[in-house]
Design brief:
This protein is an alpha+beta fold. Helix content is 27%, strand content 32%. It has two domains: 238 residues, Rossmann fold, CATH 3.40.50; 129 residues, no CATH class. Strand 7, helix 6 and strand 8 form a beta-alpha-beta unit. The model has no long low-confidence stretch (mean pLDDT 88).
Amino acid sequence: MHGHGIKITNARKQFGRAEILQRIDLDIQAGEFLTLLGPSGCGKSTLLRMIAGFDQLSSGSIQIGDREITRLPPKKRDVAMVFQSYALYPHMTVAKNIGMPLEMSRLSFRQRLPGSRLFSRQVREIHREIAQTVDKVAGQLDLKPLLDRKPAQLSGGQRQRVAVGRAIVRQPSVFLMDEPLSNLDAKLRIQLREEISDLHRRTGITFLYVTHDQTEAMAMSNRVAVMQSGRIVQCAKPQEIYNRPSELAVARFVGSVAINELPVTVASGDILLAQRSLKLRAAEAPNDACTLALRPESLEAVSHDEEADFTLPLLHVEFSGSEVTLRCDASALGTDRIRVQMRAERFERLRGEGAIEDQVALRILAQNALLFSRTGQLMPAQLATRGAGR
């Protein structure tokens, strides 16, 4: 079972005068797991519904494999879709729920009537094939022990797996998932996230997945397309989206702890923060007001003030197992808070040495710092520690 690529060209969608999708171009490789990530209302679910055929484009085209499908009805598109609310047939068993799409496609209305198996060998044969396929899919999703149960006897996670089973039983070449895990609790979400990744690896189907949860997107995808107000802002591998976000808006959206933003000015390659020159240079950056964006792990607490770029009052320490996040007051630097993340053992060592008390001395790790222009575009300038490489 293998997927087909999806090519979306110049896709636009308008409702009245509102433009929901603005000139979307997206090329999804066959067998790829691509996630559309963005806040609610950015157009990601609309784009998914266009591919499924539930909504029509205002202009542009969609191709699956080498077939143009822009005007085809949903059932001719060879896609399967799983929604957030997985409506199962409550009166049917799990086996019947999963096999239903096959019964609908392989048996006529008359052949589906009760008793038809008694009179027709052909109908019995089709039912036997369907049962075999259902058994195979149930095995892939660990649903075999549940095949005789009704949906009311299942947990949320089990129901979600049945919905996935019902979608893949038809062996589609493209699998669309719209926020399928958002109704589940955190532990179950992680478990199902792993199951969906495994399923993708085993089947080789093309997965297009929609979520507003960046952790989910980063964990599962080959590539992530970040959407904002109807356009794709950046489409790249998860680590590139995290390390080299093309716009400040992307940097803000991705990362489990918010990125730190400092108002700086560039003057002939030197970076000035609160009128003080930092130990950083950005040789190619034009002279202007910019934003220096630092991930919480791009700041390092140091034990001696002379190595530091600035020293800030400590407001709060937050433990999360192996990591510790410090929240510092950064009003002296022209922003509200700065968050610093480090390994728990490093925190304990620095605290033991007396380096972390009511003040923390911080150093910027130049290679991970990002510089954004006034309009929020990533500056191509490489940041380096002054004195290095001269």
